[in-house]
Specification:
The chain has one helix at about 190-220; strands at about 10-15, 20, 75-80, 85-90, 95-100, 110-115, 130-135, 140-145, 155-160, 180-185. It folds into 2 domains: about 10-190, Sandwich (Jelly Rolls); about 195-220. The radius of gyration is 24 Å and the shape is elongated. The longest helix has 29 residues, at about 190-220. A 4-stranded antiparallel β-sheet has the order 3-10-5-8, with no helix packed on it. About 15% of the residues lie in helices and about 25% in strands. The protein is built from 1 helix and 10 strands. One of its GO terms (molecular function) is RNA transmembrane transporter activity. Keywords: Glycoprotein, Membrane, Signal, Transmembrane, Transmembrane helix. It is found in: Membrane.
Length: about 220
């Protein structure tokens, strides 16, 4: 089921320092994950202020690999007018995971971790409203805990119109902003579990030290 209304314009104007137009746009419809019925009715309404007829193409595709699995790498392309997000749930016996992101190019983007609820903030103007976020150029990573997202989470990728948020210096925005991304979710050790293990090791060491000292004084 689709639980929210999504609107956007074409041409898609997108820039921090100037005006750039994208004549192709794509957005993922936010699913209602708690729904028991997998069927959804989608209504599309199109309007224009142009006094001339406008020709356009509308296509609905199934998002591949929308549900992310542990240790399974996902690769895709995105642009400022085509943000992408995926869903991950903690159902594979992992209470804490590491999300590792890599790219072959230096195009700047924002990586965002959001609650699995609608709407999804997948524009640069709105991605800061919810969840964890990190600017990424070539590599990035975020540790995510099940305690913070017990019902699962959305992994959101939004490309910037220039690289100023990721690099120092003057960077001129260009229309060629297609970025290639690969990411994988891996299990990692809970920080609290690490502390417990360290305390156990310290306790064993102190116990051995006390026992050795006791035996030494007993023999004397």
């Amino acid at each position: 089921m689709i639980s929210n209304i999504l609107t956007y314009k074409l041409p898609f104007n997108y820039s921090n320092i100037g005006l750039f137009r994208y004549y192709k746009a794509a957005h993922i419809l936010c699913p209602l994950l708690s729904g028991s019925n997998n069927e959804s009715r989608i209504v599309v309404s199109v309007s224009t202020n142009s006094i001339q007829n406008v020709t356009f193409i509308l296509r609905l595709d199934v998002q591949k690999s929308f549900n992310v699995l542990l240790n399974k790498e996902v690769s895709f392309n995105l642009s400022p007018s085509e943000p992408v997000y995926y869903y991950y749930s903690f159902k594979q016996n992992a209470s804490m995971v590491l999300l590792h992101v890599k790219s072959d190019d230096v195009i700047c983007m924002t990586l965002s971790i959001q609650n699995s609820s609608c709407p999804v903030f997948d524009l640069l103007e709105t991605v800061q409203y919810d969840g964890l976020r990190q600017t990424v150029s070539k590599t990035g990573g975020i540790i995510i805990s099940k305690d913070e997202y017990p019902l699962g989470l959305f992994i959101v990728f939004v490309v910037h119109s220039d690289n100023s948020a990721c690099h120092r210096g003057n960077y001129q925005a260009t229309n060629s902003r297609t970025k290639n991304i690969s990411f994988v979710v891996k299990p990692t050790v809970d920080f609290n579990y690490q502390i417990i293990n360290c305390l156990i090791v310290i306790f064993i060491f102190i116990s051995i030290l006390v026992f050795t000292t006791f035996c030494y004084h007993t023999k004397r």
